[in-house]
Amino acid sequence: MPTTVSSPALNYPAAPTTPPAALSLEERLVLITAAMTLRLDEAAVAYEVNTAHIPTEPLYLGDLGTVPLTPALQPPPTPYPTPVAALLQRAHHRLLTGGWCSGALVDQDGARCMLGAIRTEARGDGGLGASAAAVLLDAIRRQFGDVDSVPSFNDAFTAARIPLRMLDQAAKLADARGL
Hints:
Helix content: 40-55%
Low-confidence stretches: none
Number of strands: 2
Shape: elongated
Structural class: mainly alpha
Number of helices: 6
Radius of gyration: 31 Å
Order of helices and strands: EEHHHHHH
């Protein structure tokens, strides 16, 4: 039993006369892990508080994927079983491998816009191309609201990322509809 030091105001226990036992390596690691976890949690809260005022836009995780350096050497993906979905998938692959452009169906380098890729991949079947363009416009309107046409949507961008993503989403939509 520890002895107490008498004081007129308080009674404190006396300091132990034997030093504490040294901690083992495992015990020290557990204590350090707990301390670091606490510090990281505090830093995460501080980060959230300090960045809460910064406006952000939603991030589409599909945009984070990397494109191979030589997409022309990549085999096309397994086609969808439905004709419109397969056409939209081929148009997506054509833009990925052949290049995307805006302002023209086909530019001087052979790059195509969204509608140009659909028409090329339709291979003369105007009805199939029109169905694919209609599904693509529906997919665009679902995400971007009131859009006049596929060419006006295509020409509103300076990079291929979003038009490629919309072709991919339209292919999925057409497959879900059985088109």
